[in-house]
Amino acid sequence: MADVLTAAPPTAASSPPRRFSRRWRNTLIGWSFILPNFLGFAVLTLVPVIAAFVLSFMDWDSYNAPEWIGLKNFQRMLHDESTKVALKNTAYYALGHVPLTVLAALGLALLLNRKIAGVGFFRAAAFFPYITSMVAVAVVWNMLFNPEFGPINQFLHFIGVDNAPGWTTSTSWAMPAVIVTSVWRDMGYYMILFLAGLQAIPTEHYEAAKMDGANNWQRFRHVTLPGLRPVTFLVLILLTVQSFKVFDLIVVMTDGGPGRATLVLSQQIYRQGIVEGEFGYASAISLVLFLLVLVLTLTQFWFNNRRERK
């Protein structure tokens, strides 16, 4: 009994191993939560991306063994007229889709950021097209754009327009028709983001600006737009990435036609890889598309950081 009473208490030297084992246990628990998602990302995204990067320097048709050809796929791209047209059309689509969607979404957000009767219904109605099937959206808008029987041209004839556009049957109007359809579908989603940004702006800022004599336009310019800068930056990033990888809407509405009027890079990758079986060349185009989006995204980050420092 005396030995028990006189035994020395545990020393501090015994605590570090215990803390060390607890830290490892917490680390393993954390990895157990992360690992399933990471494995899915690695198998379904990371490995295909690395494989596409390697294949861009090879000639492979999925039947024969891959053959290393260096930069020949990229040299071919410089002389491939279809790829050049696809790049121009992709830029055309992005330059139309991004600013128009931003303006439409911001306008909707401003209109629906008010205490009016039924505002919840109108917000849901504006968001509904985004969760609608892309195929259904494309089919309905193809009917609306029908040159002979579509309601849009019928209305244009009613107001006195004799030579109404051919829309999806015209090489000049097919891409604008696709852009209008995509803006209508996407603006509801980005409206939600702008609504969140508007409701995060303190009302005291508007009250102070009003007390200083600022009119509606001045309050919008000096209070609303600066307050929406983080949300606008996010929307621009998301829209840029989305615009450069557009595929399903164009495939259903025009299938890249008429001719090559709406052929975009993602569809060119599909045609060269899946249809023609030239997986090396398709991977080279996809790598160029990835680098293009990466450069544009980094440029937007640079401009945003530069504005934040001012």
Question: Top keywords for this entry?
Answer:
mainly alpha, MetI-like fold, 2 domains, two-stranded antiparallel ribbon, 14 helices, 2 strands
Model description:
Strands 1-2 form a two-stranded antiparallel ribbon. The longest helix is centred in the N-terminal third of the chain and has 41 residues, at 15-55. With 310 residues, the protein is mostly helical. The chain has helices at residues 2-6, 15-55, 72-79, 81-111, 119-131, 134-144, 151-158, 174-200, 203-211, 216-227, 229-244, 248-253, 265-275, 279-309; strands at 58-59, 67-68. It starts with a helix and ends with a helix. 74% of the residues lie in helices and 1% in strands. Residues 1-5 have low confidence and may be disordered. The chain folds into two domains: 2-55, no CATH class; 73-309, Orthogonal Bundle (MetI-like fold).
Per CATH, the superfamily of the largest domain is MetI-like
What is the terminal separation in angstroms? Answer: 75 Å
**Count of alpha/pi helices:** 14
The strand count comes to 2
Order of helices and strands: HHEEHHHHHHHHHHHH
Computed structural class: mainly alpha
Based on CA inertia axes, which overall geometry fits?
globular
Percentage of residues in strands: under 5%
Which CATH class of the largest domain?
Answer: Mainly Alpha
List the helices and strands and how they pair.
Elements: H1 2-6, H2 15-55, E1 58-59, E2 67-68, H3 72-79, H4 81-111, H5 119-131, H6 134-144, H7 151-158, H8 174-200, H9 203-211, H10 216-227, H11 229-244, H12 248-253, H13 265-275, H14 279-309
Antiparallel strand pairs: 1-2
Helix pairs in contact: 2-14, 3-14, 4-8, 4-11, 4-13, 5-8, 8-11, 11-14, 13-14
